[in-house]
Design brief:
Length: about 375
């Protein structure tokens, strides 16, 4: 535990003590095991297939949905195996839930990189119900915790909406180098092209020759055009040229790559602000989306990055990448709860179709599902 935190066991004692006198006055006969209300705790169990329910075979859409869920489960394997295994272990051999269980639960949530603030909120709700004996067995705790997390995630489940009639729709993609920014752009370009949209890429990370070369390679693979400037060119000029060309050629979507670290005397955030102002000279509403790409393996640093970028440049959506390579996937819960910024996409692999629209239900299902995959 970090030094700046309050003593966790002291915190838990206060939670359990709160209102204890009223609880003690209730007789054992009057203590009713409360069932979790359906409206308060939304059902998030895996939907059975039509074949299991009705004997009819799954539709093609249901098959695709199942395949998506399996891919997400596989991508979250490292996070799930650590989180769920530890969660189950604290209940082994226990006949009652007490303060010690809550203390261990806190440790598991923190290790999953959910974050201190969000961990305390989850614990406060769980321990309050435990104190009132509304959660009196391990399975109820797991189901209730799952429902709380699903609720937090549901608040930021907002797919990117490329509005009809807005042409070109400009997406400015930001994030530190190494977060998967350029490959995320490529995957978005491929997805949108498959939907029938024309796409133009802007190689506005002009300070890294490798970045321009990388986006050119991806543009060639995906089969879309790219605008680039001379080496060390002003990033804003490249973004301006791309948006101007998109207007003239009636292109549907412009994806603007940007720098991810300091390269000049001008601070990074000032450079990004300048890019925003420049594209707005052509289309006042642009960029229509400012998508922040974050590497999930950064853990709590991911929340810090998101906070820093959002304070400088209003972030309208987040793409959380590399969930398949980390046990810190719980950071998405902390980001959702603390920042309330829409989660547009999650990256669960290197293939083009491994960037998927974020689903709160699917994420919670994959996180809590006990499987051997």
């Amino acid at each position: 535990m970090s030094e700046d935190r309050t003593d966790s066991r002291g915190f838990l004692k206060r939670l359990f003590k709160r209102g204890a006198s009223g609880a003690e006055e209730r007789s054992e006969d009057s203590t009713v095991r409360a069932e979790i209300d359906r409206e308060e705790v939304p059902a998030v169990e895996t939907a059975l297939s039509r074949e299991a329910e009705t004997g009819a075979p799954d539709t093609e859409q249901e098959k695709a949905d199942k395949a998506d869920l399996l891919r997400l489960e596989k991508g979250l394997k490292k996070t799930r195996s650590s989180f769920l295994k530890n969660l189950n272990q604290i209940f082994i051999g226990r006949k009652r839930l007490d303060e010690d269980v809550a203390a261990q639960l806190e440790e598991i949530l923190v290790k999953a990189d959910i974050g201190v603030k969000t961990t305390f909120e989850l614990l406060e709700s769980v321990t309050e119900r435990m104190r009132r004996r509304e959660l009196d067995d391990p399975q109820m705790v797991v189901v209730y915790l799952k429902s709380l997390i699903t609720g937090m995630l549901a608040g930021v489940e907002k797919p990117l909406n490329i509005e009809a009639g807005v042409k070109p729709f400009v997406v400015m993609v930001i994030g530190v180098n190494g977060s998967g920014k350029t490959t995320t752009i490529a995957k978005l370009a491929a997805q949108q092209k498959n939907k029938g949209r024309s796409v133009l890429l802007a190689a506005a990370d002009t300070f890294r020759a490798a970045a321009v070369e990388q986006i050119e390679i991806w543009a060639d693979r995906v089969g879309v055009a790219v605008v680039k400037g001379k080496e060390k060119a002003d990033p804003s000029s490249v973004a301006f040229e791309a948006v101007d060309r998109a207007v003239k050629e009636n292109i549907d979507l412009v994806l603007v790559d940007t720098a991810g670290r300091l390269h000049t005397r001008a601070p990074l955030m000032e450079e990004l602000k300048k890019v925003r102002r420049t594209v707005a000279k052509i289309i006042p509403e642009a960029p229509h989306e400012t998508l922040l790409v974050i590497d999930a393996s950064m853990g709590q640093n991911a929340i810090l990055q998101a906070t820093t970028f959002n304070e400088a440049i209003p972030v309208t959506g987040i793409a959380l990448t590399k969930l398949d390579g980390t046990a810190k996937g719980g950071v998405i819960i902390g980001i959702s709860n603390e920042l309330k910024i829409p989660i547009r996409y999650v990256g669960i692999g290197e293939k083009m179709d491994d960037l998927r629209e974020f689903s709160a239900r699917d994420f919670a299902e994959a996180l809590f599902r006990e499987t051997d995959t």
